[in-house]
Specification:
The complex is a heterotetramer, with two copies of chain A (323 residues) and two copies of chain B (341 residues). Helices cover 38% and strands 19% of the residues of chain A. Chain A contains eleven helices and 14 strands. In chain A, β6, α6 and β7 form a beta-alpha-beta unit. In chain A, α1 runs parallel beside α6, α3 packs parallel to α4 and α7 packs across α11. The radius of gyration of chain A is 19 Å and the shape is globular. The mean pLDDT of chain A is 98. Chain B is of the alpha/beta class. Chain B has one domain: Rossmann fold (3-Layer(aba) Sandwich). Chain B contains twelve helices and seven strands. In chain B, the strands form two sheets. Chain B has a five-stranded parallel beta sheet with strand order 1-2-3-7-6, sandwiched between helices. In chain B, strands 4-5 form a two-stranded antiparallel ribbon. In chain B, α7 links the parallel β2 and β3. In chain B, α2 packs antiparallel against α11, α2 packs across α12 and α3 packs parallel to α9. Chain B is globular, with a radius of gyration of 19 Å. The chains are: A alpha/beta (323), B alpha/beta (341). At the A-B interface, α3 and α4 of A face α6 and α7 of B. Bound molecules: thiamine diphosphate (TPP) (2 copies) and magnesium ion (2 copies).
């Protein structure tokens, strides 16, 4: 067993599902010959050929719309957005067609949309956003945000097997930064959070790239005697509310953190649920941490001031503990 | 000045002659006629129910366009898949959707096709190879391309067909969907129903193009133009397109010229349409003109016409009764099926 | 002075601004000859002529994109979406072009998008949604939701005068239901909430159609001895946080309510802010009320079960008071 | 098989002869040459800075397409408005953007045009009549239609011009924007830079259309096709289109055939492009071929060429120095300008 990256884990998961089920296919811009802008589908064209690996015209709405149609007919498309940001061009297909089909007329839409998202790579206003909250508020869509190599693989596989449209946000900052050794069949259920680290002084509820930073901060704080419980949500919809509440009931203090902008980010939903459902258990205000309410800036020093940094997380945790 | 048609040359819109009619089986022709009559009868009943305050909300009429829906759908096999739009009631009926399904949906019934969750003819049925539209016009074009893509992937010789309006054809999805289908040579047919208006907006305000069919060239696909009220001509051009698609030669865009004979929806009195335009098109009514032709060809006579009328009337009665007998949508199950299990 | 409706107030406000400033123009589907699907622009074509009243092709992205371009050049477009729902087709223009222009390169985008939204009219899955939360999370956009005749007029005028893209959510349920007499110049500042009713037992933080229902409930509860303070946010972005917090500090109990679906609705943001910033003042959990997490159903009994009803608001308020 | 061009007939792509050249003023022609040289020099410097690790992120080269940008922009007045895309560095320079502005943006400087908030040539400047693109391709088409609409509303005789790639032309906004511009006869010109690839995707996978210019018919607008590496031909067809637009005759879609001579961005080695294709197009390099023609026409000689080279070199040096002398973007003001005051 050798180590693989987060990016390779996505590739492995997809490949295993392609081999297992002839209905699975990949569709997107530059995913064939080029292997995708981030090389996630590298080698797939050679292994599976066209049209199962389908390089498309530059048309996000067609990619997503065709995926909806093929999925309704029983295929299992895995559509790639070259960057998550470009999903804005095919927005309607997801929120109106894919999301509402089953509720309206019982049609299953077993499709996955892969969305390379997030910052830390100086992508600027159009190549670094975290658009998960747009979709997490749409009944009928599922939303997952893997933060580990294992979850990257386990969630892409579960997403492909799911009979609903699943938006799979893969974080670009984690692509080659995370490595792990995986053995056997890796399947991670959608809708189950993960206690990434147990702790008793404060809960950090987070997902995506902030799990990475949060775990580093937690390690650091442990050496200072503060035990942070880190909850990696993994899935925003369905949300594993119970695991969140349980942690809060245990630590009585909580920081909710994401890389997305703060106002209207999904952290508001989580904080609101905690405030409503664990009110009696709170010894401190539910603290929220997110990026500044601006577009994502390009220059390094600006982007670093924009997104929550380890130091910000640490400060918020310590203040919450000290409250 | 009342406008009556697109600027492009009249001759280029295909129509059929008596000789063309004779090439077809009388039973087939009577079937077309019958399905048009069924469509209008159901449409008329729905309007009546609206006026009686029985519908959940408004309704959309396809009056005057029955031939277009029935003729084009007649060119398909039952295992071909259609994506009907709001003015394709005739397509749904022709493709096998029972009237009660439509009525149950208009009445918001618990065991209607959407269980009261959506209205009007806004539903689909995989059993009948019918995909539901969404309201956002042209969205069905990429989606039906995806349906066609599934045929390509599975090496099935089926065809996907949908419709779009003169207005809806200006949405970006028209472009993305047709271009996508073109580059993959998908078995896909798109019928553009140019009924002169999009809500209150005449085609001159929709596009400066001389016609809509010429857009096909921009996607490298075939096209044709047809008189949409000549049901047989619609059948024939669609049949050609369907055969081309089934043979692997790729998609076709068909522009059918017709007229929306009602307002956009029941609440709209369409005062913005010059009366002369309605008058002129009334003379081209697809059912009346087709009946006339069938009579001339001795395929239809008073007796057969009456039999068909009676049967259709009975069908509408029975199906309406059935729909009313169904229980209303049930809020207890309201949040049950947002997700597939 | 005669009474005018909420709908007429929008029309009056637009007309006054058209007369005041030659840069203002209207653009949308069927807004000319027909006067708009809801007749908001009735008479405008006759008064102002083409191209100032511009019937467009059926192309939401072109309508919004052209508005962005014209606005950058210094005109002040007022774009109409025939129904708010159709904004999904021009989503990218708003969230990526309009929202980010000033931040990126200092270009002002003084445009207004009018979005007839909301339910109660049996519109079903595609003609009754409340999509404000998609935009309230986008830095660079302003979002207003008038709930009274006065605000309908005062906010459309302020929106037109604002140098930023403003999304103006007009509620279809209120169009002809609300009447009022307005005198003089009516200008309502964007970003200022309104204490719609003072009370001391519990705060109801709401906006849009729920102000209407909330006020009725408050009246009813007053007769039962419960004094509800109703805060009509009017503007989601900028949010008048101070008025909200002040109310909560006074009543110590709060219900946040909107017609939009609950999960990911803007109520989460509001509740989260209250929970964080008024923690010490809360004698009860921040209660949230929103529609069920489904698409908007069509049949009356389903739609009524879907959206918060007066009885639901009453129950939530009473439970919060009794907590 | 290396592809070298679209399938449509070679002859239909306009090019210019020596006679055409002679119709123009030598100063004007040297100006075109000079701006191409400036563009390549800046492009080359930016690549070098990238390799030295001096840029904030990657960079996009327009190498081989300089003539297209410079030639088309030369057809405009300074008060016309352009919306340059990522490969229109030459358009920006020709329209008056100083090199330092571009460099400051690539270097993320506080007083660059985006203050470090956006990168590369992704910026606009109303002072220079330049609108910034967003990354989402084709979005500029409706937006520039809106710019043109402002001219119509204000009765100004200005023109809006933008560019789109062979790939980007398949986005729905291409359709919505051009159709909108067509129906309103807006003073708008769109140049489709068919450079054979969209990232790794060759045009055959983008569309089945025989060319892109034919799409104009679907919007009822004028079109033309031009050899994109023949700078003078680009100038001439654009000039015709601009005059048509200024005269109230509406928009034009121009398809210009060229070749992207680098990878999509600096990180992309473009291994997917057959070497023969690069070789063939290298021979058609717009600067070398134009220089050759100018020399033949005795407009350019070694001396003038050297003078231009020296001046351009000095300009690049000076402007680069200027850019480096600027302070880096300042996080203290990061959230200041999300909204206009
Ligand atoms: C994307 C989108 N924008 C707006 C609407 C609102 N709308 C519904 S039908 C209609 C007119 C449609 O005209 P056309 O496409 O010609 O079809 P017809 O009704 O004439 O059959 C409009 C504007 C819509 N359904 N979808
Ligand atoms: C809507 C959209 N989808 C995807 C992308 C990612 N992307 C950036 S450039 C590019 C290829 C563009 O090709 P083309 O339009 O031919 O322009 P060229 O780079 O060849 O000049 C792609 C896919 C994008 N920028 N916008
Ligand atoms: Mg129409
Ligand atoms: Mg290209």
């Amino acid at each position: 067993m050798s180590e693989i990256t987060y990016l390779e884990a996505i590739r492995e998961g997809m490949r295993e599902e392609m081999l297992r089920d002839g209905n699975v296919f990949c569709i997107g811009e530059d995913i064939g010959t080029y292997g995708g802008a981030f090389r996630v589908t590298q080698g797939f064209l050679q292994e599976f050929g066209r049209p199962r690996i389908l390089d498309t015209p530059l048309s996000e709405s067609a990619i997503l719309g065709a995926s909806v149609g093929a999925a309704i007919m029983g295929l299992r498309p895995v559509a790639e957005m070259q960057f998550a940001d470009f999903v804005a061009n095919g927005f309607n297909m997801l929120v109106n067609f894919a999301a509402k089909a089953h509720y309206r007329w019982g049609a299953k839409v077993p499709m996955v949309v892969r969305l390379p998202s997030g910052g830390g790579t100086r992508g600027g206003p159009f190549h670094a956003t975290n658009p998960e909250a747009w979709f997490a508020r749409v009944p009928g869509l599922k939303v997952v945000c893997p933060a580990t190599v294992r979850d990257a693989k386990g969630l892409i596989k579960s997403a492909i097997r799911d009979d609903n449209p699943v938006l799979y946000f893969e974080h670009k900052f984690l692509y080659r930064r995370l490595k792990d050794t995986l053995e056997g069949e890796v399947l991670v259920p959608i809708g189950r959070a993960r206690v990434a680290r147990e702790g008793r002084h404060v809960s950090l509820i987070t997902y995506g790239s902030m799990v990475y930073h949060g775990m580093n901060v937690a390690l650091e704080l442990a050496s200072e005697g503060v035990e942070v419980e880190v909850i990696d949500l993994r899935s925003l919809v369905p949300l594993d509310e119970e695991t969140v509440l349980e942690s809060v009931r245990k630590t009585n203090r909580v920081v909710v953190c994401h890389e997305d902008t703060k106002t209207g980010g999904f952290g508001g939903e989580i904080a609101a649920r905690i405030a409503e459902k664990a009110f009696e258990h709170l010894d401190a205000p539910v603290r929220r941490l997110g990026a500044k309410d601006t577009p994502v800036p390009h220059a390094p020093q600006l982007e670093d001031a924009f997104a929550p940094q380890p130091a910000d997380i640490k400060k918020a945790l310590l203040e919450t503990v000290a409250y | 000045m009342p406008r009556t048609s697109r600027k492009s040359s009249e001759a280029s819109f295909r129509s059929t002659t008596e000789a063309d009619l004779k090439r077809h089986d009388a039973g087939f022709l009577l079937g077309l006629y019958r399905d048009m009559v069924r469509t209008r009868a159901l449409d008329t009943r729905i309007e009546a129910l609206y006026k009686q305050g029985k519908l959940v909300a408004g309704c959309y009429s396809s009056r005057g366009q029955e031939g277009l829906s029935v003729g084009s759908t007649a060119a398909l096999r039952k295992d071909d898949v259609i994506g009907p739009m709001i003015r394709n009631l005739g397509s749904m009926l022709r493709h096998g959707i029972p009237m009660t399904m439509v009525l149950r949906n208009y009445l918001g019934r618990a065991n209607g096709p959407t269980k009261g969750r959506d209205g009007s003819s806004h539903f689909g049925s995989l059993e009948h190879n019918v995909i539901a539209p969404i309201s956002m016009l042209a969205s069905l074009i990429p989606v039906m391309s995806g349906v066609a893509l599934s045929f390509l992937m599975r090496k099935e010789d089926r065809v996907a067909l949908t419709w779009i309006g003169d207005g809806g054809s200006n949405v970006g999805d028209f472009h993305e969907g047709l271009n996508f289908a073109g580059v993959l040579k998908l078995p896909f047919v798109l019928i553009l129903e140019n009924n002169q208006y999009a809500y209150s907006t005449p085609i001159e305000y929709q596009t400066a193009a001389k016609d809509f069919a010429c857009r096909a060239e921009g996607y490298g696909i075939a096209s044709s133009k047809v008189e949409g009220n000549d049901t047989l001509a619609v059948y024939e051009v669609t049949k050609e397109a369907v055969e081309r698609a089934r043979g692997g030669a790729g998609p076709t865009l068909i522009e059918a010229r017709t007229m929306r004979m009602r307002g956009h929806a029941i609440h709209d009195d369409a005062k913005y349409v010059p009366q002369e335009m309605f008058d002129e098109w009334e003379k081209k009514d697809p059912i009346a003109t087709f009946a006339e032709r069938l009579r001339k060809a001795k395929i239809l006579d008073d007796k057969i016409a009456k039999r068909i009328d009676d049967e259709v009337k009975a069908e509408v009665e029975e199906q309406t009764e059935d729909a009313f007998a169904q229980p209303p949508a049930d809020p207890a199950h309201e949040i049950d099926e947002v997700y597939a299990p």
